[in-house]
């Protein structure tokens, strides 16, 4: 289960009032959404978005039949398209917008999408199933471009070595799972990587997730 980050603090900072129209652009498991929904009451309205179809479906099931909630419109959509979505639905201006970026713990624990380097899973890392998975990106990308992504998106100081190791390993056998990638990274970096403070795969996984989902573009 995902524990919403700083739930009370977020809701307090947003200063949610009864009857407002609030957008949660990153629904996840809906922890923030439900707390906001309680505050705006039945006179309010919410628009909630998530790139992940499973998140939207699970939330619809969760709220089905609940009578004490405001109207909550759920869209499997990128928050980058909020303006278009509002115009299309003729919703007018929203009072508040919440974006809780990144991934949720249930995306690590339940979805089998390869977000965590601590589990052996297919190397997908995409919220939206229609986007190109990381294993395909690693097959197609040029070594130099990969190096730039690792350096720019995660400050990985061994970006060149890791990018080289990934492309070399891919020539022998395709990198298809999280563990395949972790093994390549571990061999490419020094034994005392970051003095043991973080797993050697941490930065590479973060950079690849951001790139695969165009998180900066959103
Ligand atoms: C940290 S979780 C949100 C957790 C949520 N606040 C809760 O209480 O459960 C981030 C969510 O944003 C979604 N997401 C990431 N990028 C997105 C984007 N560009 N547009 C819409 N949803 C996105 C992910 O699929 C994930 O479900």
UniProtKB/TrEMBL annotation:
InterPro entries: RsmH, SAM-dep_MeTrfase_MraW_recog, SAM-dependent_MTases_sf. GO terms for molecular function: rRNA (cytosine-N4-)-methyltransferase activity. The keyword Cytoplasm does not apply. Keywords: Methyltransferase, rRNA processing, S-adenosyl-L-methionine, Transferase. GO terms for biological process: rRNA base methylation. Pfam families: Methyltransf_5. SUPFAM superfamilies: Putative methyltransferase TM0872, insert domain (SSF81799), S-adenosyl-L-methionine-dependent methyltransferases (SSF53335). GO terms for cellular component: cytoplasm. Belongs to the methyltransferase superfamily. RsmH family. This is 16S rRNA (Cytosine(1402)-N(4))-methyltransferase.
């Amino acid at each position: 289960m995902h524990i919403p980050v700083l739930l009370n603090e977020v809701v307090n900072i947003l200063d949610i009032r009864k009857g407002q129209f609030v957008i949660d652009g990153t629904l996840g498991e809906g922890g923030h959404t439900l707390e906001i929904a309680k505050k705006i009451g039945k006179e309010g309205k919410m628009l909630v978005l998530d790139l992940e179809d499973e998140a939207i479906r699970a939330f619809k099931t969760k709220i089905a039949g609940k009578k004490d909630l405001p109207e909550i419109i759920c869209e499997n959509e990128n928050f980058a398209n909020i303006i278009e979505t509002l115009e299309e639905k003729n919703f007018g201006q929203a009072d508040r917008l919440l974006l809780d970026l990144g991934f949720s713990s249930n995306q690590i624990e339940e979805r089998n999408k390869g977000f965590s380097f601590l589990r052996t899973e297919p190397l997908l890392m995409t919220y939206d199933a229609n986007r190109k998975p990381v294993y395909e990106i690693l097959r197609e990308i040029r070594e130099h471009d990969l190096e730039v992504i690792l350096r720019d998106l995660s400050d990985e100081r061994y970006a060149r070595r890791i990018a080289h190791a990934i492309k070399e390993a891919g020539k022998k056998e395709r990198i298809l799972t999280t563990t395949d990638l972790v093994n390549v990274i571990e061999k490419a970096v020094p034994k005392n990587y970051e003095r043991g403070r973080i797993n050697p795969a941490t930065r590479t996984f973060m950079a690849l997730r951001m790139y695969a989902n165009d998180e900066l573009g959103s």
